[in-house]
Amino acid sequence: MPSLEKELMYKEIKERFDGRSIFFSSFDRLNIVDFEDLRKSVRAVKAKGYVVKKSLVKRYLDEINVTGYNGLLDGALFLTICETEPQKVSKALANFAKSKENFILKGAYIEGSLKDKNFVDALSKLPSREQLLGNLVCSMKAPITNFVFGLNAILRNFVVVVNEIKKQKETQAG
Question: Residue 71: what pLDDT?
Answer without folding.
Answer: 80
